[in-house]
Amino acid sequence: MDFLQTSIDGLLFGSAYALLALGFSLIFGIMKRINLAYGSSLLFGGALAVWLEPIIGWGAVGVFLVTVLGAAFAGIYVERLCFSPHLGKTGVMASMIASFAIWMQLDEISSQLLPHRTHSFAGIDIEAVSFSGIILRGDQILHFWVAVVAIGALYWTLYRTRFGLLLRASADDPDTAYLLGGKVARLGMATFGLAGVLGGIAAFLILSSDGQITPHFGLWSTFKGLIAMMLGGVGSLPGAIVGGLLLGFAEAHVTFYLGAEFRDILTFGLLLLILVLRPGGLLGEAIYRTGRLAAERI
Amino acid sequence: MLKLTNLAKYFGGVRAVDGLDMQINKGEIFGLIGPNGSGKSTTVNLICGVFPQTAGTIELDNVDLGRLAPHQRIEFGVSRTFQNIRLFGDLTVWQNLWVAWRDAPGHETSWLVNWFGSPADRRHEIQKLLEFSGLGDRADRPASSLSFGEQRRLELARAMASKPKLILLDEPAAGMNSEEVADLRNRILTMKNLGMTVLLVEHVMDLVMSVTDRITVLNFGKPIAEGTPLEIQNNEMVQEAYFGSAKNVEAGN
Q1: CATH number of residue B26's parent domain
Q2: What's residue A48's pLDDT?
Q3: Could you point out which of A94, A260, A263, B106 has its C-alpha 20 to 30 Å from the C-alpha of B199?
Q4: Residue A91 CB: number of other CB atoms within 10 A?
Q5: Residue B190: inside a domain, yes or no?
């Protein structure tokens, strides 16, 4: 029964990791941009929400909206400064280093917004549900459904709208898309904004579940998102979801059976193991692509 | 309509295009021919804005294209196919056309509608392009699964999807067998009947001579002749550029 309870807790928390990983996968995998400031833009959203909470009122709803919009705004800001097509010409390295600088900047701004290091973050009070010995925390059930809706909306956007089609085409072959008149600049901004929305939702779910925010959240979410993305396979959206759920599942079990101090080391161990066995991640395309490239060259 | 004045492009010391004057009128199928390396593809790339010209001007409907970025030139009505086919292989035939689709110049709708809507009249336009390309029954197949000739046809239809004023065809018959070339000829003539203006860069002489209204011949980046297909075929300088001097041809025979 403990095992079942821990598994469910882990998977429910993992749904927030899945959202984080999807945001990473959009930017790193699909757009192929190395954006080091992604975690910090989520922290910025959270910090801004805490700072504005007394002004706006609205409780958890206001915090949610500000977190999501703040993260999306920070994402677009990063794209304009570091990754806009004009600057893209200077190369991947310049963009990456520029995003490192913005990481520092966003972290500093967030620290200024959160002067006491640890601040309480609006939690959601919903009664727990229990049936046949399993207890489901109300906020975790909400997390799960928010994640399901967000993932559904993402898939709809990517696979059912022309925006998603243009995005996939320009990710597939940016030069041709540009020569066909794709508004690559506007697409880039929209994608970074979209990744910010996904990450902002994830940040709100995680922070409200913890009930607090610290300036370390940026780095923390970068680690978690990267690990979840790599577990599932870079560039694979189903992979990001599976990776996030797996990460939540593994963390919950390690914490329950071995203690919280073993959590990170075993998570990294799991990542190492999977990358050794399947270098592209669980659902990644690395192996398949290498094979196809080899076939094309023959 | 399209007017090139003293157009030049140097790559270091190589004069790829060197003082090209050319004018294409509306509704014309215009041929640009010349031996390998004579600057034909460079001219196409200059018109599209792949790289900037060294000197001279490119004007379309009296607007200086030289100042516009490639995507702005497409908005203004320039469209092209590529020498090496550049379709989005993972996307379906339908999606390849839908990606390139755009509002007619001057009738743009908001980007929100363009990104999130797909009204019936647009689907109808894509359907017509599918019929033009003869790929109606393969609309949901990935582009990479098509045969070579079919991919060429899809690229042709994709170039029309942006409702261009001018379509640049960069060696559309390259690698085609004679049957496929005959099919391409019919499609280009259909485009002419639809009132489209086409610049055709091509090596397959049969095709060029049978569909074009006028032709410019390039050699070493310079225009050496201009005229109707018949005039070009009888032009001695052209024969020399292609085959060496007449005496050599006789000697070769």
Answers
A1: 3.40.50.300
A2: 93
A3: B106
A4: 10
A5: no
pLDDT tens digits for range A47-106: 998 898 888 878 888 889 999 999 999 999 999 888 876 555 567 788 888 889 999 999
Chain B residues inside the 8 Å CB shell of A178: 70-71
Nearest chain B residue (CA) to A157? B116
Domain assignment present for B204: yes
Question: What pLDDT is stored for residue B99 in this prediction?
Answer: 87
State whether B90 and A168 contact (CB < 8 Å): yes
Distant-in-sequence, close-in-space partners of A94: CB < 8 Å, separation ≥ 6: A87
* Domain match, B62 and B1 both: yes
Whether the predicted pLDDT of A112 surpasses 80: yes
- In this prediction, residue B238 carries a pLDDT of 81
- Contact list in A for residue B50 (CB cut-off 8 A) is 179
3-state SS track over A253-286? HHHHHCCHHHHHHHHHHHHHHHHHHCCCCCCCCH
Check CB contact of A54 with chain B, cutoff 8 Å.
Answer: no
| Residue of B102, B115, B116, B154 to mutate for A, most A C-beta atoms under 10 A | B115
Give the residue from A236, A225, A229 showing the smallest Cα distance to A285. Answer: A236
CB contact under 8 Å between B75 and A181, yes or no, is yes
In a domain, B179, yes or no: no
Close Cβ partners of A198 (under 8 Å, ≥ 6 residues apart) = A19, A20, A22, A23, A26, A150, A154
- The answer to whether residue B113 sits within a structural domain is yes
* A166 close to B (CB below 8 A): yes
State residue A78's pLDDT score: 92
CA A142, CA B116: separation in Å to the nearest integer?
28
Please check whether residues B18 and B41 belong to one and the same domain: yes
**Which residue does chain B place closest to A163, by CA atoms?**
B115
- Name the domain count of chain A: 1
Q: Are residues A162 and B114, on separate chains, in Cβ contact within 8 Å?
A: yes
Q: Are A36 and A103 in contact (CB under 8 A)?
A: yes
Residues of chain A with C-beta less than 8 angstroms from the C-beta of B114: 162
Q: Report, as an integer, the average pLDDT of A142-168.
A: 90
Structural domain harbouring A39: 2-126+134-297
Last residue in a domain, options B161, B183, B217: B161
Number of separate domains in chain B? 2
Average pLDDT over residues A245-258: 92
From CA B20, how far away is CA B38, in angstroms rounded?
Answer: 12
B166-186 per-position pLDDT tens digit: 999 999 998 888 899 999 999
**Residue-wise pLDDT tens digits, B192-242:** 998 899 999 998 888 999 999 999 999 888 888 899 998 888 888 888 877
CATH number at residue A119: 1.10.3470
